[in-house]
Amino acid sequence: MSHTTGQYRKLNNPALGWLLGRVFRLWRSAISQSVKPLGMTEARWAVMMNLKTLGEGTSQHTLASELGIEMPSLNRTVNQLVELNLVKRREHPSDRRCKCLWFTQAGNTQLQALDAYVGSVRGELTQGITDEELDGMFNVLKKIESNASALLNKPMEGDK
Fold first, then answer.
1. For the domain 29-119, what is the CATH code?
2. How far apart are CA 140 and CA 88, in angstroms?
3. Which DSSP helix (H) or strand (E) runs through 51?
4. First-to-last CA distance in the chain?
């Protein structure tokens, strides 16, 4: 085994998962700090940015799943965004029990401001990292994501 491979394996221990989590928390905190002037909490901007990514008309259930939160938590945040006139709920076309989310005009304006703040933070956080390094890191993280999804969807021993 080469020294480089040994070094990689030494780094590829539980500390890698810890570091991924730490970077994720710091990244989110940096965004939250930057968007305070917009009156955005972490919960609010996370819902808005994820709704943008998933697309308007996304169901609340899908959004909650993507955010990894329970429906009551999402409902509280969506209620706040509705009160701020940033999003609106509409019934799903084929399931009246299901509510889908859409941006209001004010929400689209706020989303543009959020994009600018988040883009600025992203630029600062990735300062000194080449495009090639970022592409490589993205590809590695996508592989880890895929492996994690496969692992979580794999039937456990004893399941029928």
1. 1.10.10.10
2. 37
3. helix 42-54
4. 41
Tokens of 99: 């509510």
Integer Cα distance of 32 and 51 in angstroms:
17
Structure tokens at 41: 């909490």
Distances (CA, A) of 43 to 2, 79, 93: 46, 12, 27
pLDDT < 70 positions in the chain:
1-14, 158-160
- β-partners of residue 89 are 101
Global pTM value: 0.81
Cα–Cα distance between 74 and 47 in angstroms, integer? 8
Closest CA to 28 of 121, 115, 109, 112: 121
Q: Which amino acid is at 137?
A: M
Residue type, 131: D
Residue 7's pLDDT is 59
Helix, strand or coil, per DSSP, at residue 154: coil
| Model pLDDT, residue 159 | 66
Place of tokens 């600062």: 124
CA–CA separation, 61 and 76 (whole Å)? 13
Structural domain boundaries in the chain: 29-119
